[in-house]
Amino acid sequence: MAAERRPPRVLLLTSGPVDGGRGGDTDIAMALARELPAVRHLWFRKWPGPDEAVRDLPGRSVPLLSRDGVPRLPVRVQAVAAGSVLTRRCDLVHAVMTIGSGFPPFSRLWPRIVGDTPVLHTVPGVMNPALLARSRPLGPTVALSEATAGRMRSAGFGEVRVIRPVVRPEEWPLLPRTVSDGQTVLVTGHHDPGGGAEEAIASAAVAARAGARFRLVLALRDRPGLDTRALEADLRALAASQGLPETEVLGHVPDMHGLLAAADVLLYVPRALGGKADVPLTVLQALATGRPVVLSELPQFESLRGAVLQAAPGDCERTGRLLQQVLDRPRWWRSLVDQGRATVEERFGVARFAAQYAHLYEELLS
């Protein structure tokens, strides 16, 4: 009787632990480990104290010394060092990395490390398109949007495929609208230039002046090295000057389920993504949960067209009017909920995601 073929070993190469600062790269990496059971993935976790989110994650965990999991330089160095060793024990390296300022030199160094091991690169986002001209492809490349795929093809990355991220419906069930004395508008994003926090406040002020009544909550992630307290204080002052004195400004919120359940509308209006995922996972989670989304009209968001309300980046007047209308029209709110949930199930489902990556793995491992 022939021996059973062992499952292929695939290193999920991320810039830091998958249970660190949750983002597009770590969420995609965890989805790959969960949805491709025929593969034995190796993935990074923080040490000491791995997060509850990865305790049952299939595959083998590789510890990186980091208490908070944020991919600062020492953590990134550990990831590259560990990856250089593990690569020689694996059949495939699947890099899940945003293209940021450190990627061009990394893209030249990495081929010397991996040798003949094939590499697949999923690109959640690109911090600056100018970086593409200085970068080399690690191997076959996957983007989350056709807009980014087109830019990468033009920069010499060859054939770039598009595979959308995934949301598991059972993890984000459709929830009824919260019955309370007031409505809540949730703003998500980062403390980045062009990240949209100031535009969200200005848009909310337009909606409030038009008669909408709501509480504004900003849940914004910080970046290493920023004075987050000062930034949050500035945003509260800006909101007060715009007639929104009860605005709440939060940092990273671990319970996104509860935050979305308490919201009526999600507002995400960046002028530029600046390396954030082409398809923000929070937007998909909001749509799955049954919360309408008002979104910037950026080319990376093309796959969400028809499921969200959109205005040109920086057009706070139109954004505010859309926000006011969806808050004040219950029937429209309901129709947007139905369309959003259906879109997530049809375009961002598990079956399509798993089948597309399984096919790519078979190509590269054959």
UniProtKB/TrEMBL annotation:
Keywords: Transferase
Pfam families the UniProt entry points to: Glyco_trans_1_4 (PF13692)
GO molecular-function term, one example from the UniProt record: glycosyltransferase activity
SUPFAM superfamilies named among the record's database cross-references: UDP-Glycosyltransferase/glycogen phosphorylase
PANTHER family xref list: BLL3647 PROTEIN, GLYCOSYLTRANSFERASE
Name of the protein: D-inositol 3-phosphate glycosyltransferase
Species this chain originates from: Streptomyces triticiradicis
